[in-house]
Each structure stands twice: as structure tokens, then as C-alpha cells.
Amino acid sequence: CHTRGLVRQRKRQKMKKLxxxxxxxxxxxxxxxxxxxxxxxxxxxxxxxxNGMVQDSTVGNYTFSLIYRPTEMLLxxxxxxxxxxxxxxxKQLKKEYTGVQYFNFRIKPLDVLVIAGVSTALNEKxxxxxxxxxxxxxxxxxxKLVEGGDTLxxxxxxxxxxxxxxxxxxxxxxFEDKQLKKPTAxxxxxxxxxxxxxxxxxxxxxxxxxxxxxxxxxxx
Length: 220
What we know:
The protein is an alpha+beta fold. 36% of the residues lie in helices and 28% in strands. The chain is globular, with a radius of gyration of 23 Å. The relative contact order is 0.18. Mean pLDDT is 82; it is low at 23-32.
């Protein structure tokens, strides 16, 4: 009996070692997958739909698009405005975006005339005005972020008026960043109330988030 107990104990120890090695290997692979890229490469990678940071779904007469904008993308936008970049400036800018995460959400009518209000459905001035009011003030209450088992409300929301120059309606949605220890799928759920599409959900997959590169910035 004593011998059997020792055998079982050794087996458990061996399994623990194998589990530890497996975890280390997985972490190593994750780190390796996150390549470092210079700003121009990073922006190109993020904007390439094949890399999963851009998701589209056509429902009814509209195509919905979700574009994930991590902190690094926002930093690069702000850094363009800086005459001289220092480590102090970089840290200050990075701190401003800590704790929140950004998404671009777009709605593109399949009928290009809809965006200009020429289509019969939006031809009436009252309908156009109602839509603008909804997009500007109420739509943010119909957007949720589902991540890691949590459902988060929109903290900040901007209707980016393009005044008919773009073939879509564009919005910037800001949510709390839980700063989870590992990449987790991010799903934006839109509960439509004016377009007749019902609930629309778009997901940035966990597997794609694991592949997201790290930004490499040369600061003197």
C-alpha cells in the first residue's frame, strides 16, 4: 500500500511538472506571436481586415462595421501633433488613455442614396432630424461591450458627422478597460431601434487579439 501511495504521488508530481511546462510554452508562444512593429507597419496591420481588428456584418439593408482602436493607435494619432517627442511626453499621453478602450462603429446603408436623405424612407425632414438626434444623444445607450463575462455600458460616445461626404454613419464608442490578464474576445452588441435590423453583434476574436503586435517607438 505504501508503495502504491508513492507511485501515485510521483505521478501527481509528474503531471504538475508537465502542466507547468505546458503553461510556460503557451505563454512563450503568445509573446512570440506579438511581434514588435514600427508605427507605419503597426497602422497598416491594424487596418488590414484580414488581421481581425476590423469586423463587418450585413443585416437587412445595412452593413455594420466594428474597428478596434487600441491605446497604441490613439497614441500614434496624438504623437503626430507633437513637435518633439520625449519619454516624458510619451508616458503622459499613454497615461491619458489608460483604463479605457475605443471602438469605431459604422453603419453603411446598402442604398447609397439613404445617406443623403434622398431615399423615400429618409426623405422627410422630420425623419432625418429624428435620426440625427438619436445618433447624437440616445444611441450610446443601445451599445454594450461584452468581454470576459462582463457586459459594459458605453462611457463616452461621439457621432462623427461627415455631412454626407462618407457613405456611412460613423461613431466613436468608449468603454472601460478591465485590463484583463490575457486577451479575451470583445463583442459589441447594438440593440437597434430605428433601422429595423434588430440586435446586431460584432466580435473581435480572442485568437486574433493574441496575434496583435506590439508597437515599437524610437524615442531619443
